[in-house]
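Hi team,

As requested, here is the filled-out complex form for the S-adenosylmethionine run. I kept the field names the same as last time so the parser does not choke. Let me know if anything looks off before we queue the next batch.

— J.
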Amino acid sequence: MCNENVGSYLKFVFTDDKSVGLYNNDVGDIYHSIFGAKSEAEGKFVAPLDFMNNFYNKDNLKVLDICYGIGYNTKVLLKKILQTNYQGKVHIDILEYDKNLVTISPFIKDSLFKSFPEISYILTSSLINEIYHNKSLLQLLVSNAQYSKFFEPFYRRLIQKYHLLGYTYYHYKQNNAFLHNIYYHCISQRIKKPYNRFKINDFIIRPYFDDARTTIKALNTQYDIIFLDAFTPAKLPTLWSYEFFKELYRLSAKDCILVTYSNSVAIRHAMSAAGYSAGKLFDKDNRHCGTIASRNKNLIKNPLDDYDIGLMQTKAGIYYRDKNLNSTVQEIIERYCKEKMTSSLQSSSQFIKKYKSEHNNGKI
Ligand SMILES: C[S@@+](CC[C@H](N)C(=O)[O-])C[C@H]1O[C@@H](n2cnc3c(N)ncnc32)[C@H](O)[C@@H]1O
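And here is what came back:
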């Protein structure tokens, strides 16, 4: 995607927790909940991991962040890692086909910078070459009144300063100077505090800028944590097919936890068919807020029950197919609609009616 086109497909907004969120004009979908981009990552993606119980004691943590966007899920996980004083090494692979988003991610107002500047420093260090090559985009955004308010003032000044210097240095030196400035102004004082462990070499973050379906085929790591934060299945089904989940299953360590915000019956069915044990996620008000999956069924606190499994056997459980992981959106949707039309499975409403009459006097 061309840098200068950012304004034509992206709309920046402040969400309710003061973190910046985005809307995509082309897809017609939001990237983040308007109630809070950062809070959404905390509640729907990181809290369900139960980090202290499931991951804190591992020496190495391998994470796959599918659909990184501007990075809230990775950032909030990094916050958890720093807060809990986790001592192991952290390796995060980020899959995102929009380079612009990854480039701006360390610098936007994310409601994390003041308390945890280490997060943006870790990201900037790992992404420094991308950032350097996309410096004109950053300069454009921080100098334009329409966008600059969405960026941290510290970074606005720093980016402007480096722009004024004209990027005349050898780029390696320029990058080091840029990183040194962040470290000196935001971090060096903080790491003197005893609670704060911070070894930059313990964090490796590697971006892959391609269709996640292409990247995934080439990966061979066994991940401990997988975030799946693709656009809504009905709008962009490409990353929700049975075949995609098969690949994720192949890349899941035995105790891996996969988390997604989707509650869809068809998505849960695709995960189960791929081999996962799936379960329900609830938010703090006890509302459904997503799905958790693992190879290890003991890690699932709220497994799917008879009702959920029954629903998966109805037309609502028909999932998306993408045989070679290269179909177009149109092809995936057409195939899905055709299967639904010709299916002899009962409808979900028939199933729900029957289930209600057989259980709890009509209540679910
Ligand atoms: C709902 S947003 C994710 C928001 C993100 N987790 C965050 O914290 O900002 C979906 C993201 O998926 C990316 N995306 C959509 N389809 C993709 C694909 N096939 N491969 C890689 N990235 C994709 C979009 O560019 C977008 O950034």
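Two things worth flagging: Residues 90 and 203 are 5 Å apart (CA to CA). The domain at 3-229 is CATH 3.40.50 (Rossmann fold).

Thanks,
J.
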